[in-house]
Automatic annotation (TrEMBL):
GO biological process, one term: regulation of glucose metabolic process
Xref: InterPro entries: AK/P_DHK_N_sf, BCDHK/PDK_N, BCKD/PDK
Domain Branched-chain alpha-ketoacid dehydrogenase kinase/Pyruvate dehydrogenase kinase N-terminal: 61-121
Native source organism of the sequence: Monoraphidium neglectum
Highest rank taxon of the organism: Eukaryota
Record-given protein name: Protein-serine/threonine kinase
UniProt signal peptide: none
Enzyme Commission numbers on file: 2.7.11.-
Family recorded in the similarity comment: Belongs to the PDK/BCKDK protein kinase family.
GO cellular component annotations of the record: mitochondrial matrix
Length: 132
């Protein structure tokens, strides 16, 4: 059997780190034993990718647009919706991760916040693993 490409191996390792961070947060522990920042538990390349997505602007969607779009869906609309989600979801999740990482007054280190942070970051990492 051939060796895995470096990007797949890195994504697999990042996925394992994210799963460990999510388990730790669920148990009420910090993101990592030595700290409470995302970069303490996840490889730097993944953190850079998350924050690169966070710099992108979110696409606004009005309730009227969603109602008109989803009232009588046809296959073309479903494909467009899936394409929109594929592009937009990582941006929105990255925004939530960045917001949770930068909360004031030490709130970013609270177990409940760390749990959410790890869940959002884990979703982005799992998405990276499936792309690789």
């Amino acid at each position: 059997m051939a060796a895995l490409p470096a990007s797949v191996a890195m994504a697999s390792a990042a996925g394992a780190a994210a799963r460990a961070a999510v388990r730790a947060a669920a148990a009420g522990a910090s993101v990592a034993h030595s700290g409470t920042r995302l970069s303490d538990a996840v490889p730097r390349e993944i953190v850079d990718d998350i924050f690169a997505h966070a710099l992108k602007k979110q696409t606004g969607v009005s309730l009227k647009y969603m109602l008109d779009f989803g009232a009588n869906p046809i296959e073309r609309q479903l494909v467009l919706s899936a394409q929109f989600l594929q592009k937009e979801l990582p941006v929105r999740l990255a925004h939530r991760v960045a917001e949770l990482e930068n909360l004031p007054y030490g709130l970013s280190s609270k177990p409940q916040v760390l749990k959410q942070l790890c869940m959002y970051a884990g979703m982005l990492i799992m998405r990276a693993c499936t792309r690789a």
